[in-house]
Structures are given as structure tokens and as C-alpha cells.
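Lab manual, section 2.4: Encoding a predicted structure.

Procedure: take the sequence of the chain (272 residues), apply the prediction step described in section 2.3, and record the output as C-alpha cells. A sample record is shown.
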Amino acid sequence: MKSCLNTHPPSGRDCRAFTLIELLVVIAIIAILAAMLLPALAKAKSRAYAANDINNCKQCMLGMSMYVLDNGDSMPEPGWQMQYDCWLTGGDPNNNITSLLASHAAGTFQADYNKQLAYFKGLPPATHGGQLYPFLKSEKLLLCPEEKIDLNYYKRYELISSYVWNGAVVGYPNTPAGSPLAPTYKLTKFKASNILQWENDENNTDYRAWNDFANYPQENNLPTFSSRHGKAAQVGRMDGSAARVTMKEMVAQATGNYKNDLWCNPASLTGR
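Recorded output:
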């Protein structure tokens, strides 16, 4: 057996072990490479979530299109107030679908979520489900896969959906609680590119952004769409399609005082 104690090993190789400094250098290089790789992996994961979001929006838009075909071109209610029938839940004149408080607690969250989910599916205490339930069926289509049950989530009134509809469907009516809502516009009143659905901003802690299933393009002078998936928002359009729209374009439209794909009230010259 050859010994590494030989002055001149036959192979010509140096049989010394790694020194501590060499090991630390290798570990440092691996750590640097991992640090460079993790953001890329996180970005790829977020893109996968974004693709899931687009699919959710697409399924909702297909449901909307089927509803419209069955109802003389009239669109589902957007959920401007939660006690009325809408695309997502069956109506409840007593407004039991949501807490009267501005937030939920960790201890009651699951019970509150299940109660709202019953109004989507038409289970007791609800008497019937949401207008799109016959076409959607699965509650998984209502939530972004990146949702986190955190303190911001507890502050929401509505819990079962990451997505909201555009209040333009009923012309953004300023009606007091308990008043009947205006009927929805027919789908043909909108352009194909008009945006009907978007993922709501999970960081917006103003309860008004989460008090029902529909929104203005901006609430309290803040855009209401999520930027969790990077430089674009996932939306559903009136023509039944789903797409990614750059955040720059979404912000420009939400803050603009002109008719566009977000501000698209058919009865208004400015779309508001």
C-alpha cells in the first residue's frame, strides 16, 4: 500500500487534505451561488402562481359568458353589496353573510369562511348559491394560490375570494345599505377589452376595498389590484378571456379621468 507520507507519491499528486480555510471558501462560494439562485426560484414560483391566477380568471369569465347566454345578455350582479344575489354568492336580506365588524379573528376565521362559502354553494343557512356557482362549482377557483392567512386577511369583510368584479357592471351606484341595486348592464354595452375581474390588493388594509365582491378601479384614491406577481396584474375581460396587463398600464387607467378598460361605466362619458 502506498503511503501519503512518501516524499514523492508515484502518481505525482499531492495527498494533503483540505485545510479549514479552503473548506470555508468552498462553503462561501456555495452560499453565494444559492443566494443568487433563490430569487430566480422565487420568481419562477410567482410566475407559476400567476399562471394559476390567469386560469382562475379564465374559468370565471367562461362562467360569466355561459350565464349571459342563459339570461338574455344580462350580466351577473358584481356584488356591489353583499346582501344581494351576485356572481359569487346567493343573497341574504339579513346580511348574515358577513360580519358587521370590520375584521375577523383567528379563532373565528374558519367558521366565518365556511359561512361565506355556504352562500357560494347554496348550503344552509343560504337558500341558493351564487349566480356563477352552476358553472364554477369549485371554491379553489376563487382564491389565489399565494394567499396567506395573516393579519391583513383577518381585516377583510369578505374572505372566500381573492378576486373582485368591476362595479361598472351596475354603473358604480352610490346606494345606501338596504336599497335595491340598479340592474346590470347587458354585456353588449361593454367593449371586448373592458376589464371585469382582477385580483384585489392583499396589502390594502382599508376595509372598503374588501367589504363586498366588487370594487372601483381605485378605492380611497389607491388602485385596488394586486402586484404580488410582479410587473403585471391578472385580469378577466368582458369577451371571456383572461390576460396579464402591466402594472404601469393598470395604474395609468385606474388613476386616469377618462373612459378606458377599467373605468368603463356605459352610462358615463368618463367611464366613472
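Check your result against the sample. The first strand starts at residue 163 and ends at 166.
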